[in-house]
Amino acid sequence: MSTDLTRLTAAELAGKIHAKEISAVEAARAHLDRIAAVDGGENGVHAFLHVAGESAIASAELVDAGIAAGTGPASSLAGVPLALKDVFTTRDMPTTCGSKILEGWQPPYDATVTARLRAAGVTILGKTNMDEFAMGSSTEHSAYGVTRNPWDRSRVPGGSGGGSAASLAAFEAPLAIGTDTGGSIRQPAAFTGTVGVKPTYGGVSRYGLVACASSLDQAGPCARTVLDAALLHEVIGGHDPLDSTSIDAPVPSVVAAARRGAEGDLSGLKVGVVRELGGEGYEPGVRTAYDASLRRLEKLGADLVEVSCPHFEYAMAAYYLILPSEVSSNLARFDAMRYGMRSTVSSGGGVASAEEVMAATREAGFGPEVKRRIILGTYALSSGYYDAYYGQAQKIRTLISRDFEAAFTQADVLVSPTTPTVPFPIGDKIDDPLAMYLNDLATIPTNLAGTAGMSVPSGLSDGLPTGLQIMAPALGEALMYRVGAAFEAARDADDGGPLIARVPEVAP
Questions:
Q1: Which domains does the chain show, CATH number per domain?
Q2: pLDDT tens digits for 242-261?
Q3: 160 upstream amide cis, omega within 30 of 0
Q4: Could you point out which of 165, 265, 280, 313 has its C-alpha 20 to 30 Å from the C-alpha of 121?
């Protein structure tokens, strides 16, 4: 039974729980058993940093009690297990952000996303591994070890949310939550053959999400199907007065859109093929899968039009000035005085100053990638360089937003490959920051503009997954989900089943 339950989609699992065919406790135990079997050990997936077995079972018991009493379920996903990225505060679990500087820290409050999941009766299985403070594209920058890609455990699962994506591909959870600052939901989704969605900036609350870059960070759903992602999106989305950047507008009707899309008709829709994304620098296998995806969209009735976004070529350069600048500001709070680790300092027999303790703590607590970005950002914001670097980058950001606006006058949604490559070997790019940064070439523009983006599995290249990125205007998620679901249904029909069913079994 355990293996069967872990292979169900979230929608299927919820249907069985709510119909009393299985219990929420059975679903939770099946996934906890799966985690125990495949996540640990030297060659395990290592998707989780913390497994909350007791609280998961207790949460599931509440769902079962409500259903038995006729007062539940609390939501369409009540009783469905979920993996939560370890960047959201949780009052009953540690929140480390993949960093030694927060090792063992247990927050006194829940993030809004966490609270909404609990209120919906979703079973939180634990916290997933990530690049430290969400800075990375491979989950190799975690202070607690690398996460392995279930498709090939010698390869990375992407980052920063590699743990959440890998938990889905390893069938340890049917749902997960990630965050996307420059591609940290969509890129791992492409690398693991799963679905990842970056909602419109402000569409999901950032309250209790430990900040990396506040104008770029966005929480979003991760799943194995487009419908499951839509169901989760509706649970976590919506206005939050605790977040000053939260949009005071209804959540787009993404579930209805996904169900409509699954019917497989995109007649009348214009899909914009972004000229600047998908050419030089993209692996041949990725390009082949992308070309096949475009043909599939045409078969569904979509009208393909080429659009140009000329300033996209400057997106990565602008991003790696804006993001580090915000990082240098946000991470100043880790001062060894209020929370987190504090290094002891010998000061010639005297009492060490606050500055000495702070410097020693940051040296010991932050990893090399975090230090690199803090230094770069501090320099970009420094007197005499602000206008030349940060100011210019913000002007490029405006031009990229205008590119999107112009493109969306020509097309309803835009498409591109999600990533330039398939998952690369662990260690292959760890010592080459620029090569690592290039993984987010196609995803960064959406973050800079604050618009919506999704990655859906598009096929295999030499046995490794690739992704199709679908981009929509701000608050245009419903159309994005419709296109994603239609594409997914057509791909599954052409391939004889879901791509994720072809992931190799992860042996215990």
A1: 2-311+401-502 (3.90.1300.10)
A2: 999 999 999 999 999 999 99
A3: yes
A4: 165
Are the C-beta atoms of 135 and 127 separated by less than 8 Å? no
Structure tokens at 199: 């909602």
In the predicted model, what is the mean pLDDT of the chain? 95
Phi and psi at 132, nearest 5°, equal -55, 125
Buried b (16+ CB within 10 A) or exposed e, 453-478: bbbbbbbbbeebbbbbbbbbbbbbbb
Q: Quick check: 348 pLDDT over 70?
A: no
Q: Are 208 and 246 in contact (CB under 8 A)?
A: no
Residue 2 has pLDDT above 50, yes or no: no
SS3 at position 163: helix
DSSP label at 503? S
- Confidence band of 1 (pLDDT split at 50, 70, 90): very low
Round to whole Å and give the CA distance between 143 and 166.
17
Residue in 315, 346, 329, 51 with CA at minimum distance from that of residue 173? 51
Tell me the catalytic residues. Answer: 85, 160, 184
Burial category of 66 from C-beta neighbours within 10 Å (exposed 0-12, middle 13-18, buried 19 and up): middle
Average pLDDT of span 370-393: 93
Q: What six digits make up the tokens of 32?
A: 């906890």
- List the one residue out of 504, 452, 461, 491 whose CA is nearest residue 230: 452
Question: Is the per-residue pLDDT at 278 higher than 90?
Answer: no
pLDDT band at 355 (very low <50, low <70, confident <90, very high): confident
Beta-bridge partners for 275? none
User: For residues 313 and 315, what is the distance between their CA atoms, to the nearest angstrom?
Assistant: 6
- 345 pLDDT band (50/70/90 cuts)? confident
Backbone dihedral region for residue 497 (phi beyond 0: left; psi -120 to 50: alpha; all else: beta): left
User: What average pLDDT does this structure show over 407-418?
Assistant: 98
Q: Mention every residue, 6+ apart, whose C-beta is less than 8 A from residue 448.
A: 216, 315, 318, 319, 322, 397, 400, 401
Helix (H) or strand (E) holding 46: none
Q: Is the pLDDT of residue 346 over 80?
A: no
3-state secondary structure of 56: helix
Instruction: Provide the 3-class DSSP secondary structure of residue 505.
Output: coil
- Residue that the structure tokens 């050990």 belong to: 41
Strand 219-223, strand 48-51: pairing: unpaired
Amino acid at 347: S
Strand partners of residue 453: 198, 471
